[in-house]
Amino acid sequence: MIRRGRAGAWVYAVLVGLVASSLFPLYWSFVVSTRDNAAIGETSPLLLPGGHLFDNIQRVFTTVDFWLAIGNSLIVATTVMVSNVVLSSFAGFSFARLRFRGRNTLFLIVIGSAMVPAQLGVVPLYLVVSDFGWYGRLEAVIVPALVSAFGVFWMRQACEGSIDQDLVDAATVDGASILRTFWHVAVPAIRPQATVLAMVTFLGAWNDYFWPLVVLDPAQTPTVQVVLSQLASGYFTDYALMLTGATLGVLPVIVLFVLLGRNLVRSISTGLTGA
Question: Where is the ABC transmembrane type-1 domain (predicted)?
């Protein structure tokens, strides 16, 4: 039996310090986004917000097509997130709790694919995208990321740790189909782990820069990271403009964390306690 004592003051002090150090870069970006570019060159540190936030936001939207970039990134990240959660959950449940020939071999192939550097597949994948006529279209970013080896591995481990094989066998004996067994037995058990996968996948798709830069047209189908790089280009670096765009670009991620944070904490607590 695990005994749990009350945390001391030093534990709270360490936790507060870690939280503060994690949030400070985000706060500093917000502070810079409220100042003009001349104030950033001052010797005194910038710790308090200024009064140029709305001016900087207006400059962001007049410099680049930020609304279009936000919309494209939301479409890509949301589609990739939903697809990865659904397909990885199906695959993880199949590898963990269904018996079929070649199960272990297929799973090893999935794990092996995760060990191949992504850079090796850039040229072949670009040729495939071009052959399908997807260059400059969001399909070029969405389709290659519909499912990942990490997602399959993560959900397979979740199914093995959260789903009892006896429940699956009992549902099969009662005549339930595989889809019904998955929906009524697996989904309630793996919901916290699926939430973690959703957040990780959304964040990865939202922050992806290299592949959208390769296969998308920055003028017609930009994403947030691509337009942020455009804000950073020029004869001189306008830090106020650049960090205002970065602050706006991180807002959807914060909103997603607020919406899914409870399941995330529940998943971490379940993993730590083994409950």
Answer: 70-260
